[in-house]
Design brief:
Layout (H helix, E strand, L loop, with lengths): L2 H13 L25 E2 L5 H9 L4 E3 L1 H11 L8 E6 L11 H12 L3 E6 L21 H25 L11 E5 L1 H4 L4 H6 L7 H6 L1 H8 L6 H21 L3 E5 L3 H15 L4 E5 L27 H9 L3 H11 L4 H13 L5 H31 L3 H6 L2 H7 L5 E5 L6 H7 L7 H8 L3 E3 L2 E3 L17 E6 L3 E8 L2
Length: 488
């Protein structure tokens, strides 16, 4: 693939996430070792992995520009020995969220190209807190809380890699690279302070660290910046050095807000080993208001079922607007670009079907929650939006609770002659007296998606009470009640 053609496609993909970054002309090779002279560049290159992900818009910038352009495409060529790439995930919560998906997708694409990948949970760095993109310091978590949250992140990462291997990688797909999960507490927790400061600390320059945008912004803020936060990039840089020495890792992936930390890692590894290493950033996912999706912003869509159900995750992607859905299909799925083009062509002819959104939601939900999670999301969708009795009857108790998280539930005994009015009153769904009676006669009550207007209607098994012993009572437009019938 010709480099100019690739550059044009990358420019279009990157432009979807904002204006292109200005990068200086390529630097002379003799200056490559001097970190302060290096600048990131928009992802380009002729290697198949770089070219493909650049075209999809997943790889946004590469660093350092000169050596990456000269070496990385060749190192990633099919048939060459596999490289090892890593990405870090700090356990600031016990679950990954949608904002973490693109770095994971970056690792998975490396793996699909036959390279080895490492996901590092920041059990040590999370205790300091990454200052990147933050206006104030994080509240310092306890060691036990970090360990517990790190276990949650490792479980989530294992699930993603397992679902990808099982559901998205066929036996005829060639070699799938190895995937490994590590925790930087396993080496940083055993690193003596004086050894760290005298070794790695002696190679990192204060001027460079102070010049980082995240550091400058915090130093200008009223709260200032703690020493712990200031040392965060140094510890993350040491991760890169450790992974190079012990795993041969030469590529670090991270969100676009991590470029400063990636530069610090590059500087440390090259100074202490003389080996060229590389950084690649992926776009940040933002809300419609431009805020980064995540726990801090309060708009996280979690990947743990206990926090965000498969149905809720599915609906998050189904509701994406037309102006982003093609971009998201390229970023969040493994669908070939030709297939995405076809989906969008069909969408232009039949926009009312929302086919791209449904395909996007299905692909992401299957990756995050597996085949059963996707089926659960579809059942909940049919039950809630299409009043499907079959879907309601097939739903488990867990699915009912997930679908109607705020809905009160009640366990009732079916008594002879029990009618709709009795049910509503026992469930405390309507007020006593004439107003409750009138609520039913006015058509404000439905059972299992079917409106009832006669309060004296006797409850019937198979109609008002489903085969799974459940009734879904709705009063008004949004007030749901889950009724579980005992001893039917």
């Amino acid at each position: 693939m010709a480099a100019p053609a690739l550059r044009r496609r990358c420019g279009r993909a990157a432009g979807l996430w904002g204006g292109p970054l200005r990068a200086p002309p390529p630097l002379p090779l003799r200056r490559r070792a001097h970190h302060q002279q290096q600048q990131p560049r928009r992802a380009r290159g002729t290697g198949s992995l770089l070219a493909a992900q650049c075209e999809r818009g997943l790889f946004q910038e590469v660093f350092p520009a000169q050596s990456a352009e000269e070496q990385l495409p060749g190192l990633l060529e099919p048939g060459r020995p596999p490289l090892t790439a890593y990405c870090g995930f700090d356990p600031t919560a016990d679950s990954l969220h949608v904002g973490h998906l693109l770095p994971v997708m970056g690792l998975l694409h490396f793996q699909r190209a036959g390279h080895n990948v490492i996901a590092v949970v920041g059990g040590a760095t999370a205790r300091l807190g990454d200052p990147s993109g933050r206006e104030r310091a994080r509240e310092a978590p306890s060691a036990e809380r970090v360990r517990e949250q790190a276990r949650g992140l490792r479980a989530g990462l294992e699930r993603l890699f397992g679902n990808h291997r099982e559901l998205f990688w066929g036996a005829d797909g060639g070699r799938l690279g190895q995937a490994e999960l590590l925790d930087n507490a396993w080496w940083l927790g055993r690193q003596p302070l004086l050894d760290f400061l005298g070794g790695a600390g002696g190679r990192l320059r204060m001027g460079t660290l102070l010049s980082r945008q995240s550091c400058q912004a915090r130093l200008r803020s009223p709260e200032g910046m703690s020493l712990a936060e200031f040392l965060y990039p140094a510890l993350q840089a040491y991760d890169f050095l450790h992974l190079y020495r012990h795993h041969g890792c030469r590529v670090q992936l991270g969100g676009a807000d991590q470029m400063g930390n990636i530069m610090s890692g590059y500087e440390l590894v090259t100074k202490m080993t003389g080996t060229d290493v590389f950084g690649i950033t992926v776009p940040l996912i933002t809300s419609t208001t431009g805020d980064k999706l995540g726990k801090t912003a309060g708009n996280a869509v979690w990947l743990n079922r206990d926090k965000t159900s498969p149905f809720e995750l599915y609906q998050f992607f189904v509701r994406q607007q037309d102006n982003v859905v093609e971009k998201y299909l390229k970023l969040f799925t493994f669908l070939p670009l030709e297939e995405i083009d076809h989906i969008m062509e069909m969408h232009a002819k039949e926009p009312e079907k929302w086919a791209p959104q449904k395909r996007l939601a299905a692909e992401v939900t299957k990756l995050v929650h597996g085949r059963e999670g996707l089926e659960s999301a579809k059942r909940c969708t049919k039950a809630l939006y299409y009043s499907s009795v079959e879907a309601l009857e097939a739903m488990s108790d867990q699915e009912l609770q997930e679908l109607f998280r705020q809905a009160p539930s009640a366990e009732l005994m079916l008594e002879p002659g029990m009618n709709v009015l009795d049910l509503c009153r026992k469930a405390n769904a309507i007020p006593d007296g004439p107003s409750g009676y009138q609520k039913i006669t006015d058509g404000g009550v439905s059972i299992n998606g079917i409106r009832v207007t006669d309060p004296e209607t006797v409850l019937i098994l198979g109609q008002h009470i489903l085969k799974n012993g459940v009734s879904l009572l709705r009063v008004g437009k949004k007030n749901y009640y889950i009724i579980k019938w005992l001893q039917l």
